[in-house]
Amino acid sequence: MSSRRVPFERLCRFLAVSTTLAVGACDDDSLPIAETRYRVAFSLEETTGPVGALQIEVTYRGNGNGGWEGAGGSVGCRWIVQASLHACNDKRGGELSCAIVDTGGFAGPTPLMECDFVATSDAVTAEDFKVKVVDASAPDLSPIDVEVTANVAKLTLASTTTTADPDNPPTEYTVTFEMSPYRTELDVIDALQVEIVANGARGAWIGSGAAVDCTWLVDDDLAVCTKQSNSTLECAIVNTVGFAIPSPFLECGFVSSDPVVDESDFAAFITDVSTTSGAVSDAYRVDAVSVIPR
Q1: For 141, which DSSP code?
Q2: Residue 171's pLDDT is what?
């Protein structure tokens, strides 16, 4: 099977769904599906003593298609409980894995964290999430029994947009992304799909849907970016001639009231790629290489 043809066909389907333009080469009449954003809050129920380490797995079991905002270790979760170490990882199968360690211990009842979830259903409830405690122990490492519960709230448009503050007006930035190989050789890309996440700065990508403020810096036969949420973009490009890397290939507008916004506030994940050499996606990376105020 050709390593180039499969990504090209997948990208065509993505492009057809992500824009209302007529795309004859893709032969797909699908239209974008409306999505609703939710905030899922997780709490540790009452405990008989302090908890030193806790690991949970959360699985979405609802009827509507949905997923956690962000990707991998940049999933859109914010810890509330104070601890020495904590992390969450989206396994991209609807399953979220989170762990927290604190040598001093923390006791329940207490809020643990909150995560953003996006679904095509407008009736997501706490019952749609199964929370499994994988491991729990006291600060002395002895095993303990604990319970973690979920609560769901639908986010309104007002709660997901940047709020104007006359004393701290937001700044618009142009964020430029570059694709490069992990090895030193040059390569030519003829199809690419990438997910871009603002995982450090508070703010939003400028624009909405397929009208998000993004400009391609390389030639294309077909290309589109769609704003999935304030923090997440899905972008894809097909170029039958190809464009050489390493090279800047995309710039997008971002607005934030944070005092400092830089390249470390953005992460990118390649979800599909097709190259003239036939190399696989993990041979490449996409990084934010400049963040310039407008």
Answers
A1: S
A2: 92
